[in-house]
């Protein structure tokens, strides 16, 4: 009998270890690091880290590009394994050749080549802001059990989060796993590995404290396009 899917996928070597080491070196030298925040602000008892948001920083544009390229490759693989990540929430349609429309199926997604699947993914999804995080050995961590989907931002942006991702930028320390509560699974950091998982409460997780060395990660989300982009002038009637 097949093991039930837990929807937590790890893609080894998504980013070259040398590129990871270079990011770590730049982050260590940055004078723009800020105390790590959770959804409601800075609460060191919930999350203790030093962070740098890089998506709007021109001096980090090369790193943003490299990380997004690495995540894109993992996303295509993830959608091939779980096509319902696209078709279940959006009820996608395509011309049926007779002047009408028909709903896309998982088999339709499987038949797409990478270029076509990538185009479909970019139509439906968009990248989130990237945060680099530095957790010091023996004190840093995100021990609070949390998920990534919640109604916090005034524009509803946090409710658009569909998938979370993390790229581990180093290893060589003990513990520091990403631990998922209900799946009873711990993902050990390995330099260059990419983790993708759903954002909702079903994948409540925490970042365990590293021991014997500092931990560095890049993390963000894959978001749905906003309704105006997906459905044009009638976002209340997607069908």
What does this entry look like structurally?
The chain is α+β, with helices and mostly antiparallel strands. The protein has a single domain, classed as Jelly Rolls, CATH 2.60.120. It contains six helices and 16 strands. The strands form four sheets. Strands 1, 2, 3, 6, 7, 9, 13 and 16 form an eight-stranded antiparallel β-sheet that branches. Strands 8-14-11-12 form a four-stranded antiparallel β-sheet, with no helix packed on it. Strands 4-5 form a two-stranded antiparallel sheet. Strand 4 and strand 5 form a beta hairpin. The longest helix has 21 residues. The chain is globular, with a radius of gyration of 19 Å. The C terminus is likely disordered. InterPro entries: Pro_4_hyd_alph_FE2OG_OXY. Pfam families: 2OG-FeII_Oxy_3. This is 2OG-Fe(II) oxygenase.
β-sheet strand percentage: 25-35%
> Which structural class matches the secondary elements?
alpha+beta
User: What does the largest sheet look like?
Assistant: 8 strands, antiparallel
Mind telling me the CATH class? Answer: Mainly Beta
The CATH homologous superfamily corresponds to q2cbj1_9rhob like domain
Poorly predicted spans: 235-239
Number of domains: 1
Question: So what's the overall shape?
Answer: globular
The radius of gyration is 19 Å
Taking the alpha carbons of the first and last residues, their distance comes to: 37 Å
């Amino acid at each position: 009998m097949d093991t039930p899917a837990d929807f937590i996928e790890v893609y080894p070597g998504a980013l070259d270890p040398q590129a990871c080491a270079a990011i770590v070196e730049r982050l260590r030298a940055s004078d723009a690091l800020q105390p790590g925040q959770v959804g409601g602000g800075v609460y060191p008892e919930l999350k203790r880290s030093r962070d740098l948001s890089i998506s709007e920083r021109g001096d980090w544009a090369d790193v943003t590009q490299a990380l997004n390229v690495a995540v894109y490759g993992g996303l295509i693989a993830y959608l091939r394994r779980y096509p319902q990540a696209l078709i279940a929430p959006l009820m996608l349609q395509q011309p049926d050749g007779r002047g009408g429309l028909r709903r896309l199926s998982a088999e339709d997604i499987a038949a797409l080549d990478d270029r076509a699947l990538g185009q479909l993914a970019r139509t439906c999804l968009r990248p989130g802001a990237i945060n680099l995080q530095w957790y010091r050995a023996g004190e840093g961590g995100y021990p609070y059990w949390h998920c990534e989907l919640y109604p916090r931002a005034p524009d509803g942006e946090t409710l658009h989060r569909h998938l979370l991702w993390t790229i581990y930028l180093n290893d060589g320390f003990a513990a520091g796993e990403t631990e998922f509560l209900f799946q009873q699974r711990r993902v050990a950091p390995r330099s260059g590995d990419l983790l993708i998982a759903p954002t909702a409460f079903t994948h409540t997780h925490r970042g365990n404290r590293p021991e014997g060395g500092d931990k560095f990660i890049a993390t963000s989300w894959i978001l749905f396009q906003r309704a105006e982009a997906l459905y044009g002038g009638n976002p209340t009637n997607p069908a």
